[in-house]
Amino acid sequence: MTQTLSDVWLQVPALPESVAVARQALAGLCEALEVEPKILADVKLAVTEACTNCVVHAYGGEEPLTQNRIFEVEAHPDGSELQVLVRDFGRGIAPRAESPGLGLGLPLIAALSKAVEIRGAREGGAGTEVMMAFALTETLKGKK
Amino acid sequence: MNTQQIVVDNAEAGVAVVAVHGEHDVYTAPSLREQLSSLVEDGTPVVVDLTPATFIDSSILGVLLGGLRRAREHDSGFALVIGDESEPTVRRIFEVTGLFPVFPVFSSRDEAVQAARSSSPE
Questions:
Q1: What pLDDT was estimated at residue B4?
Q2: Touching check for B61 and chain A: CB below 8 Å?
Q3: Would you list the DSSP string of chain A?
Q4: Do A37 and B96 touch (CB under 8 A)?
Q5: Is the pTM of this model over 0.80?
Q6: Residue B95 included in any domain
Q7: What are the chain A neighbours of B92 within 8 Å (beta carbons)?
Q8: How close A1 gets to chain B, by Cα (Å)?
Q9: Residue numbers of the domain that contains B45
Q10: What digits encode the pLDDT tens for the residues A14-29?
Q11: Per the domain annotation, does B1 fall within a domain?
Q12: Is residue B122 part of a domain?
C-alpha cells in the first residue's frame, strides 16, 4: 500500500539538477528539527543516492523528458524517526550491465538509514518506492 | 563565487590541483570527470582537494575512482586532500564505502602534491 506523508512533499523532473533541490529540502527540514550534524549528513547522502537512482536508472537515458518523467520526495518526522519516501514512475529496478554508476547507491542507503524498504510503487503501476527511516538522535540510533 | 565551482590550479610546478568547492553530485559529476580526464590524459599528475567541498555523493566517488584508475594506467600521480577541517559529510562517504584505503589521501595539499609528483615518472 502506498503511504502518503506530508511534511515535505516535492515533485520534480527526473533531471540531474533536481537532486540538489530534494537534498536542500530535506536539509531544511532536518535543520528545523535541529537534528545532529552527523544525522543530517546521513540523511542528505541517502536521499541524494535515492534521487540519483530516479534520475539515472528509472527512465532510461534515451527516453525524452515527458510530463511523467518525474520523481517525488516526501518526508515526515514521526516521533523519534524521520521517514523519507522517494518515488519514481519508471521501469522498476533491474540489473543493468551498462550502469554508469558504482552500484553503491542502495548499499549506501542501507548503511546510512535505520531501515529501508524498496517496493513497486503502486499495484498495477510502474515505478519504484524507496522508503527510508532515520533515527533523529544518535542515542536512539544506538550509537554513542 | 559559484557555489559548485571546480577550480584547476596549476601553480604547483608540474602538478594540477583540482579544488572542489561546495556541493557535488550527479549534476556536476560530468564536469569533474571531464576535468580529470583531460589532465590525466595529458600525463599531468593530479591532486583533487576535497577540503572546500561541502557534499559529495557516489557519483563523485565514481569519478574519483575513474580518475585514479586512468592515472595508474598512465603511470601518473593521483592523490586526494581531505583536510582536518573538511565537512563530516565528505569524510563519511569514504568511511561508509570503505574506500579510504583505495585512494592516496592526505590531510594537506602540500603532502598530496609531493606524493602525486613523486609517483609520476620524471
A1: 67
A2: yes
A3: ------SEEEEEESSHHHHHHHHHHHHHHHHHTT--HHHHHHHHHHHHHHHHHHHHTSS-TTS---TT-EEEEEEEEETTEEEEEEEE-SS-----TT-SS-S-HHHHHHHHSSEEEEEESSTTS--EEEEEEEESSTTTTT--
A4: no
A5: yes
A6: yes
A7: 38, 41-42, 45
A8: 30
A9: 6-114
A10: 999 999 999 999 999 9
A11: no
A12: no
The nearest CA of chain A is from the CA of B2 a distance in Å of 15
Within a domain: A97: no
Number of domains in chain B: 1
Q: Give a yes or no: residue A141 inside a domain.
A: no
- CATH code of the domain containing B67: 3.30.750.24
The answer to whether the CB atoms of A23 and B23 lie below 8 A apart is yes
The interface predicted TM-score (ipTM) is 0.88
- Cβ <8 Å between B27 and A102: no
pLDDT tens figures, A31-47: 999 999 889 999 999 99
The greatest distance separating any two alpha carbons of chain A, rounded to the nearest whole angstrom, comes to: 48
CB–CB contacts below 8 A, A to B: 59
Domains held by chain A: number:
1
B119 occurs within a structural domain:
no
Determine, for residues B27 and A41 on separate chains, whether the beta-carbon distance falls below 8 Å: no
Query: Would you state the cell numbers that stand for residue A13, as one nine-digit string?
Result: 523532473
Distance from CA of A14 to the nearest CA of B (A): 11
A99, part of any domain: no
Residue A42: closest C-alpha in chain B: B89
Q: B interface mutation test: which of A18, A26, A86, A108 has the most B CBs within 10 A?
A: A108
